[in-house]
Amino acid sequence: MKRGGMSVLKVSGALCAVLLALVSVSPAHAEVPNRITNITVYGNEPCPKGDGDEIVVCAREPEGEQYRIPKRLRETKKSDPPSQSWTARVRTLDEASRPTMPNSCSAVGSGGQTGCTMEMLRQWFAERQAAKARAADVP
Looking at the record, which segments are called Disordered (predicted)? Predict the structure, then answer.
């Protein structure tokens, strides 16, 4: 059994060596050019000629497209509509910065007493709006 396995291994190794030798041989006439240049020309501009072994590939676009943003960058996908209006966003920013402003309900700084009253009134108004919204949703 060992001898049969070794002979198959030798044959497959020799076959691989022959295949690699055939693949690595390349014809002399299939040389790759030294340089390939891709250029986009607009309107009636001539396509430049290549120097020596250089290959020049030209793509022609209308003249009106010369100074425009490429189509693949222009056609951005529209995102979903915002889930929150700008008014609500500004209100959130105001609430976040309120403790650092005058009339903030604080024992330190200007308008601490009036700030507490204003905070109480804001909270009452928000609760009232929420109650109206809940009442409007009830069928």
Answer: 72-112
Provide the residue type at 46 as one letter: P
More confidently predicted of 129 and 54: 129
- The residue type at 45: E
Q: Are 9 and 29 in contact (CB under 8 A)?
A: no
d(CA 75, CA 126) in angstroms, rounded, equals 42
Q: What pLDDT was estimated at residue 112?
A: 66
Looking at the DSSP bridge assignments, the partners of residue 59 are 40
Q: Which residues make Cβ contacts (< 8 Å) with residue 55, sequence separation at least 6?
A: 33, 35, 36, 37
Neighbours of 49 (CB within 10 A): 7
SS3 73: helix
CA atoms within 13 A on the CB side of 104: 13
The confidence band for 129, taking pLDDT boundaries of 50, 70 and 90, is very high
